[in-house]
Structures are given as structure tokens and as C-alpha cells.
Amino acid sequence: MTEIQPTILFEDDFIIAINKPSGVLVQADKQGEKGLAQTLGKNLGLIHRLDRPASGILLLAKKKWALANLNEQFKERQVIKKYWAVVQHKPEKESGRLKHFLRKNQEKNLSFAFDKPLHHTQEAVLEYRFLESIERYHLLEIDLKTGRHHQIRAQLKAIGSPIKGDVKYGFRRGNRDRSIHLHACSLQFSHPESGESMTLKAPPPEDIVWKAFKAIQ
């Protein structure tokens, strides 16, 4: 993938929020490739993660106490995280709540969704609503309630609606740039210093499919 520099959505003395392009690694990997927090050249604390082939809002902290504050907000599910996902197969219901139990396979870097709790599974919950259809694809808005490994990707696969380009989770072919059409579009949280409620939004990538959906322009 061609790496594009991330756009800064918000920055002050305590936090920085960026619009991460697809293909950019968030956290350093085992092969030694640097993650975004390192390449930005600042002493930043990673609060949450975003899959490499996905795009959208990523929030980082500049102070250790700000990192601790925001980690607690995520842990207590006080943060509202919304995503857009493009799928080829529209879910049977136009809106709904999905609850699965995910098991991560560390070796394959995959998560598998089950309908019932099993050994080494974690509860995963999201809500979705249908926004719009174009000729071949459908746009869903996801309200992520828990933050599990590859959660949205695994849960949408489980209902027969894998994300465009996500061959790892059942889509028939990949995108040319190896991205997937999953975008973290909105993040609502309390500022760690002022306590003010903040809502950050990120436009989708400059892509012909994203541009075709009028609902998000």
C-alpha cells in the first residue's frame, strides 16, 4: 500500500487525533516496522487501535495522566465509537444489535465469532444501521460497544456481510491497494484535562466507492 501522511483532526497540549490512512501501521510489529506513534516523532501514548487496512480516527495522548484518563474512559465504555462499513450483502434487517463471542487465533491473526460463550472467548457487541445503497454495495454505520480484536470484521462476516476488500474475513476479492472499506468516522469522549465533551469526525478516504455514497458526503 502507498503510505499517505495522516491528517491531524485535533491537537492541543494533551492529546492529538489523526485521520489514519489505510495501510498505515498503528503499533510497531514483530518484524521491527515502526508504528504511527513512533513515526510521528513525538512521545505519544496509544489509547486504542485501528486495523492496518482500515482508516479513520485514531486518538493518542501526550501526557501519561491523559493516557490513563482516556484508557479508563475506554475501559468503562464511556467513549462512543462509530464506523462506516461498505458491504456487498445487505443484512436482513436494516438495523440491529449483534452479540457474539470472539476467539482470537494468535498465529493466524484472526478472530472467530460464536453465538454462545465458549472457552477463551470474549463477548463482542455492536449496533448497526443501514444508511444507503449504490449499484453493487451497501453502507452501514456501526456503533461499536466493545473493542475486541477485528470485532467489526468478524461480526459482519458472521452475518454474511463481510466488508469490501476484506478477503481475510470472507470477501471474495481484495482491493487493489489492499485496504478494506472500514472507516472510523466519529469518536466522542471527554477531554482528559477540561472534562469537556468532544466529538471528532473524519471524512472517508478519497476513493470512488466512498464518494458514491451521498449520505456521508
Low-confidence stretches: none
Order of helices and strands: EEHEEHEEEEEHEEH
Stated plainly, the CATH topology is called Pseudouridine synthase
The total strand number stands at: 11
Terminal Cα separation, in Å?
25 Å
The main sheet comes to: 11 strands, mixed
**Helicity range:** 10-25%
Number of domains: 1
Q: Could you say which overall geometry the principal axes of the C-alpha atoms support?
A: globular
Supply database-style keywords.
single chain; eleven-stranded mixed beta sheet; mainly beta; 4 helices
Task: Explain what this protein looks like in three dimensions.
With 217 residues, the chain is mainly beta. The chain has one domain (7-216): Pseudouridine synthase (2-Layer Sandwich), CATH 3.30.2350. The chain contains four helices and eleven strands, in the order ββαββαβββββαββα. Strands 1, 2, 3, 4, 5, 6, 7, 8, 9, 10 and 11 form an eleven-stranded mixed sheet that branches. The mean pLDDT is 93.
Helix-strand blueprint:
Layout: E1 7-11, E2 15-20, H1 36-39, E3 45-46, E4 55-61, H2 64-75, E5 80-87, E6 95-105, E7 110-114, E8 122-133, E9 138-144, H3 151-158, E10 182-190, E11 197-201, H4 208-212
Parallel strand pairs: 4-10
Antiparallel strand pairs: 1-2, 2-4, 3-4, 5-9, 5-10, 6-7, 6-8, 8-9, 10-11
Summarize the structure.
With 217 residues, this protein is mainly beta.
